[in-house]
Each structure stands twice: as structure tokens, then as C-alpha cells.
Amino acid sequence: MNTPLKSSKPIPLTALVFIGWLFLMTFIPFLIILGMSFLERTPLGTISFHLSFNNYLRSFQYIYIKVLLKTVWLALVATLSCLAIGFPVAYYLARSRGWLKQLGLVLLFIPFWTNFILRVYGLVSLLGNHGLINQLLLEWGLIKTPLEILYTRTGVYLGLLYNYLPFLVVPIFSSLEKLDPALREAGFDLGANRIQVFWKVVVPNIKEGVFVGSLFVFIPMLGEYVIPDLLGGAKEAFLGNVMVSQFFVMQDWPFGSAIAGMLSLLLLITLWIQTRWSRIGGFRNGIDNAKS
Amino acid sequence: MELTMRKANPFVATIFFIAIFLLYTPLFYLILQTFLNNPYDLKSGFTFRWLLKLFHSPSLLEPLMNSLEIGVLSASLAVTVGTFGALGLFEFSALLPTTIQSLIMLPILLPEVITGLSLLLFFLLLHIELGFATVVVAHASFSASFVYFIMLEQLKKLDPQMAEVAQDLGAKPHQIFWKVTLPNILPGMMGGWLLAFTLSFDDFLISFFTSGAGLTTLPLKIYSLMRIGVTPELNGLSFLMICISTFLVLLLVSKEQSRKWVLRG
Amino acid sequence: MGLKRIIGLLIFLGLATACLIYLRSKNTIPPRLRISTWSNYFPDSVIQDFTSKTGIKVELSYISSNEELFAKLKAGATGLDIVQPSDYMVRQMKSLSMLSKLDPTLLPNLIHLDDYYRHLSYDLKNEYSVPFTWGTSGIAVNTAKVQLNETEVSWELLLNSSYPRQTSLLDDMREVFSAVLFLNHLSPNTRDLDNLVKAKQQISQIKNHVLMFNSESKPLLLKEEVYIAHIFSSDAVQAQAENPAIRYFIPREGGLIWTDNFAIPVSSQHKLQAHTFINYFLSPEHALETVRQSHLATPNREVKDLLPLEEKNNPNIYPPKEVFKKLFFLEDIGDTLPLMNRMWTELKS
User: Fold this and answer.
1) Given this model, what pLDDT does residue C2 score?
2) Tens-of-pLDDT digits for all 292 residues of chain A?
3) Domains and CATH numbers, chain A
4) What residues does each domain of chain C span?
5) Which of A145, B217, C107, C127 could serve as a FRET partner for A110 with CA atoms 20 to 30 Å apart?
6) Which chains touch B (3 or more CB pairs under 8 A)?
7) C223 shares contact with chain A (CB less than 8 Å)
8) What CATH number does the domain located at C135-257+327-348 have?
9) Residues 6+ apart with CB under 8 A from A150
10) Which of B117, B122, B156, B243 is the best mutation test for A, with the most CBs of A within 10 A?
């Protein structure tokens, strides 16, 4: 009674609003799409309420497994590349002080806040046969024929890298910020050199945050639709593209739902690996760092 | 303290500046194209034509208004629901059962394609007509969880003793509320609102699935212009939107209070 | 104490938001006609004209394939008042009761249509659809970049392109299959599984070489991102108008002919205005403007008479008689469709 937030009586009720909301707006729709994956499509494109596993059997055909592997592989390579570039960027930002840091952060945040579709559009016009890169390279005589980047797998990869990089820099930056400078100093005092301090002090203390940050880049990449669509020339389908085309072109909702089921399974496996790797507590902590 | 300020490794610094440069190249190129007579020829001369054309195309104004309205309403909805959750679960947040925890994480973890399509099926099954309301609700459905986490953090920082002290000093309950409690949770709500607004304003996929045919948001419009290849107007629009996001970031960073929330993205 | 107030505040915020959402979604701006069309049919000026003459506001949205339109309607796209399905899609939508019956008394301008287009097999009496334009599917070539023998253009040119990285195919299942089937001297409507499987294999070969699948290749041709494009005649003629080096060919093996129609989905809430729109664009004077500006082929007898000679005699818009014999409509392929869908999904994966 004497503290503003400690009266315990109405608490469950307020929480119920939120939990009910999540249950209704996320969990039930998710169940619906899972349920749909066990139904069948009629030749006319309507749905017959006939329980079957055919959609899953079909989705485990070689061709879709190949899409799955391609999706996972590209997302993984792009995440690791983001990490390789994002870490030094975050490290530099965390180490700098004063106006330089402010400027660096502002510079990082402008693309971050610029519309996603627009950033993809920027890449499309940059990479095309007549885009800036090819125009300049041809002008300078470095190449004879335009580089083939747009509408290839490389284009998709660059798109992933470009669009997700800021999303990884931020969580790494915030875990580096949380690192107690005294720890590093202690390291130096004990006679360690910079490399030793980095690997023995910095890395162990931020790896959780970095890992969860990577996860939050990797998972959306798995479900990516727009980037493969616009930068892959409708040839480099990800699982997301196969799924959406089942709904919006092929009229095969149950199969599309089965692909969604497959994607969710992938997600579960990723999370399972993650929880094996770290304790639940660290996970939650990392989530707060990563996105909230 | 001074020890940590040793000079950054030049290698790290180089990567930083190259990365920033690469992040900006596409954006600057879009801006440059806005002012080129022929957007695909660097030497084609300067023009304001495309930018002026933008202000004469009402077809872009409506999507912009739609996006703003959807952003404002879905952010308010998300803040309401998310704050309710944070208030209710604040005390138990460390010992919530895993099921509840996963439920809260679900909207954040699920890829947007699945969220969007499952909401589409949900609305169709309930025979809810797709349009403005479904998009607002769909956006709030995933941003509420983000708000929840922000509010949780904010509430953790709230010092319960402050209210006690205020009470001891003879403050009336409503004074405590307006002078102590509210100013302390308001930054969290504002931050959450801003994040939810950004998520909504930026969202393409979920709007794509839940908007039906009758509603166009700005990202949907950009996507459709891109597909049919109407580049000049699109370049004008890009210029405008890059200006807006730059302005927003500068505005937010200039205020000490909100800087933190920008940093959280 | 504080908690109750916060909750009160939240409830207020929540209710206010809910009210605003409700009001905003009820009050869907001044009633307007939402038309799902193909990207290059209606110039802005024509639509503005329509609005100023009738007071009906119009909003256009674009589709890139018939399948997309069909799926959109199925997935609850309830806001549409007029759609523009092609011939075979009219048949499919009609059979699934997705189209509402047209009221002939509201379409007096139907009499201006050429007889041929009033009795097409997919909708014998124009009960559900009214042809707006028609055209063919073929190949557009940038002749400034590609050397070719113009009298002997074959689907080879596209499907076995010597400029694969500058070649695009339509992102449309039936069109791509047809192109390969024509090359193999088969009917585009074949239901023979062996032939389709063979076609699929060919497409998967081609797919690895060509630049992209895209149904909006006009801007790509104009930007010279592609030199050879699988294209609809309407797009090709528009591209040629901007760059005369771009030429359109119907390959010697034959090509597809199609009509794009006006139809009203059952869910439309502005059926009266939708009829007004259709009737407006059936009237010779208004159709003329659209047809001339967008270089379309018109099924409207009187419009054709009014057209300037260079339009009327353009063989790319109105193919000569001997070419006509090699043109085929896509037909409903029944049970084979799901199989083809499946093959296409696999191809695109």
C-alpha cells in the first residue's frame, strides 16, 4: 500500500489483458496455420477438411530440402559476415568517446531508421547493370562487361548483409557498453597485453549478448521474403518465398502452411541449440540487450 | 578510466569507416538519382523535376497518411497492452513459467512471414474484413511484446522508496502519482510508443498480408512502384524519406531523455 | 494508489485508441472505386478525366499475373470493385462464383464492341465479363544490341538466348510453359504429362541462365538491363514508342493471344459505380483516348475506326491475318493445373 506499485491484488488481472492479447493475436493464429498444414487442397484450390500428412511428406522432398538448406546456409553466411563486420564497428563505437561517438551513433542510426523497402531499392539501383557500381567500373576501364550481381545469389547475400548489419551492431554495442571498464583495467594490471585482454576478458563477458544478437539477425533472415524476391529476380527463392507463393499464386494454402511448419521447426532447432549453449537466465538478459 | 581510452586499433577504425561508407552508398545514390535528369546516367545533368513531380502526385499522399495513422493507433494500442503486461508481471518477471515466457517471446521470434500469414488466416476464419483495422491490430500484436520488455526495464529502475519518501513528506496520493510515479514510467511508455510506431511505419510484410486490397501503406506503395518500375517518383520519395529519418534521429539524439530509446532501436 | 491511476490511464488510452480505430475503419474516406488492373493500361490523365466527369474517385492497384489476382481475391481482398482477369481466368473465376453478374441495362455501350468479342467462349454472352483490350505474348528485342534475322524469329531466341544475362522471362506459369511448348511444337494447352515434364526440365535449364523472371519488363528494356524479353504485346509496343530500337516479334512457332476484361467481384460494394466505369470505357470517345495513349489493341469496333493509321496498321498491335492463325488462347487445363502448379513451385524453388 505504501509503495505505488506493490498492491498485489489487481495485478493478475492487468497481466491477463496482455497474456490474453498474446494468446488471441499470436498463439491462436499460429495454431491455425499449423492446423491448416494438415489439411488438403482440392483441385479447385479450395480446402478440404481431410486430415493428412501429405503436405509434410511433400515438403520433405529433395527440392524443398534444397531450398531449406539454401535458406539456412545463406542466412548463416550472412549472419557470420554481419558479425565479422559488425563487431569491429561496435567495438570502435564503444571505445570512442565524446563527439566522435555521438557522430558514429547518429551515422549508424540513420540507415537503421530509414525504411527497409527503400534500403532494398537503394541496393537494387546500385547493383544493376547500369547501377552506380557498374557505371563507375566501366568508366574507369576496370571491367569490360557489367558485373553480374543483381538478380543472383550474390545479390541476395549482399542484400541480407546490408539490411541486417545495423541490427547486429546495436546489440553488440550495448553489451560492450555494459562491460565494466574496471575488468579490462584489471586485465592490464595483471600484465596481459591487448590481445589477451580482448580474448580473456572482453569476449567471455559479451559472448552471450553477441550470440543472442546474432540470433535476432539469423531468425528473421530465415523468414526473409522481400530480399530474395527483389534482389534475386524471382529465381533465388527462400522458404519464405515458396511459402508466400503457395498462398498468393498457387492457391495451395495447406502446403504453404506446411512450409510455415517447417520454418517453425527450424526456429525451434535454432532456439534449442541456443538454450543448450547458454542458460535461460543469460538468454533473457541477452534478449533485453538485443532488441527490447 | 583513462586507461581504456588508449587509441583504437587502426584496423578496427578502418573497418568502421568502410562499413559506414558502404551503409550510406545506396542511400546517397538514391538521393543523387533524385537530382539527375536521367537517373541512370551520372553525366545527365541536374534537375528538380522528379522532386517537384512528387508533390504533384496525390497517389503518394494517401499511403503516407495511412501509414501515419496506422502507426499512431497501433503504437497506442501496443503501449496500452504492453504496459498492462509489464505492470502485472513486473514482480514475477524473474520466475514466470516457461510457457508464459515463450508466449511473450513468440511475436518477437516468429519470422514476419509466419506472423503475417497466420494473422491473415485468423482474420479470414473469423470473417473479419481486411482493411485498416486489421492492419492496426496486426501491427500491435507483435509490437506489444517489445513494449512489454521496455516497460519491464523501466519499472525495474523505479525506486519504490521514492513514493514512500514523498508520502512521508506529506504528499497526497494524487500528488505522488502525478509528481513521482508518472514521470518515472512515462519515459518508458514514450520509448515503447516510439519503437512500436517505427516498427509499424517500417513494416511491409505484415501489412502486405493483412491489408486486403482496399488499403495501401507507404511501404506497400514503394514496393508496387518498384515492381512496375516507376523510378523517378520513387527517387523523389526516397529523398524525402531519408530526410525524414535523418531529421528524426537528430531530433531524438539531441534530447538527452530520448537518446537512450533511440539506441535501443 | 498509483497503480490504480496508471491502470485508469491505460484503460482510457486503450479505449480511446479502440474508438479511433473503429471510427477510422468505418469511415473509409469518401467512397471510391478500387480497381485492380495491369500496370500499363490507364494513363493518369484518363482516370482524372473520369473522376471529373462522373465525380467517382478511383484508386488503381496493380497485379502482375492472373494467378496473383485469383489468389488475392481468395485471400479476402474484399475492397476491390473491378478486376481485369484474362480470358482463362474469367472462366475459372466464373466457375467458382467469384464474379458478380453484370447488368446489361447499365452497359448500353456494349453495342460498340466488335461481334467477335461479344461471344468469346469463356463468357458467351458477356454475362460476367466485358473485354477491355486484347493482345499477344511474344518476344521484345533491343535490335541495337542484338543481331537477328527478323523474318525467322523463333522461341529459340528467347529460350536459348545468346545474351542470357540480358534476357528475362515472364513471371507467369502458363506463359512460360506455353513458350516452351510452342518451341516443342506442342499446344500450349496440352495435358500430356510427359510433354509437361519435358517442358519443366527445359525451363529449369533455362532458368539457370537467364537474368530473371519478371512480368514488368518494359522498364528493364528501356533501362537496357535486358535486351531480350518475354513480354505482352502491349508492354512491347509501349517500349517501342519510347525506344524505336526495341522491336516486338511473335515467333514463327506461334504465340498466345489473350483478352483482358472488366469484371466485378462478388464482394464489391460499389457495383453501380463499377458499371459506370465499365460503360464509360466502352464508349468510343473515352476508350479512344486510353487505347491511343497506351497503344492497346481494342475490341471496340468504333474505336478502331477512329484510330490514327499508324496505330490501326501497326502489326504489333493488330497482327496480320496469317499470324492470327498461329495464335492460341489459353484454356482451362482442369486437373493438370495442380500438377503444373506443383512443377512451377519446384522450378521456382
Assistant:
1) 65
2) 444 444 444 456 788 999 999 999 999 999 999 999 999 887 766 788 888 899 999 988 888 999 999 999 999 999 999 999 999 999 998 888 878 888 888 888 888 888 899 999 999 989 988 888 988 899 898 888 888 889 999 999 999 999 999 999 988 998 888 887 788 788 888 888 878 888 888 888 888 889 889 999 999 999 999 999 999 988 888 999 999 999 988 888 999 999 999 999 999 999 888 888 765 444 444 455 444 3
3) 61-290 (1.10.3720.10)
4) 32-134+259-318, 135-257+327-348
5) B217
6) A, C
7) yes
8) 3.40.190.10
9) A124, A127, A128, A129, A131, A231, A233
10) B117
Does C213 lie at the interface with A, CB-CB under 8 angstroms?
A: yes
* CA A174 to each of CA A141, A291, B251: distance values in angstroms, whole numbers, following the listed order: 44, 10, 21
Which residues, at least 6 apart from A159, have a Cβ–Cβ distance to it below 8 Å? A120, A123, A227, A230, A231
Q: How would you label C150-169 residue by residue, b for 16+ Cβ within 10 Å and e otherwise? A: eeebbbebbbebebebbbbb
Q: What is the structure's pLDDT at C105? A: 95
Report all structural domains of chain B as residue ranges with CATH numbers, in order of start: 57-263 (1.10.3720.10)
Q: Distance, in angstroms, between B144 CA and closest chain C CA?
A: 13
The pLDDT value given to residue C247: 95
ipTM: 0.87
Strand partners, C113: C300
A67–chain C Cβ distance below 8 A for any pair: yes
- C-alpha cell of C79? 475492397
The CA–CA distances, whole Å, from B119 to A32, A252, B205, C70 equal: 9, 17, 12, 20
H/E segment holding residue A186: helix A181-189
Q: State the CATH class of domain C32-134+259-318.
A: alpha beta
CB contact under 8 A, B76 and C25: no
Asked if C97 reaches chain A (Cβ–Cβ under 8 Å), the answer is no
Q: Which of C6, C72, C80 sits opposite B181 (nearest CB)?
A: C6
Cβ-contact C76, B212 below 8 angstroms: yes
Asked whether the beta carbons of A120 and A159 are under 8 A apart, the reply is: yes
How many C-beta neighbours within 10 Å does residue A99 have? Answer: 8
Q: Is A171 exposed, middle or buried (0-12, 13-18, 19+ CB in 10 A)?
A: buried
Q: How far apart are CA B52 and CA C148, in angstroms?
A: 42
Q: Do domains C32-134+259-318 and C135-257+327-348 have the same CATH topology?
A: yes
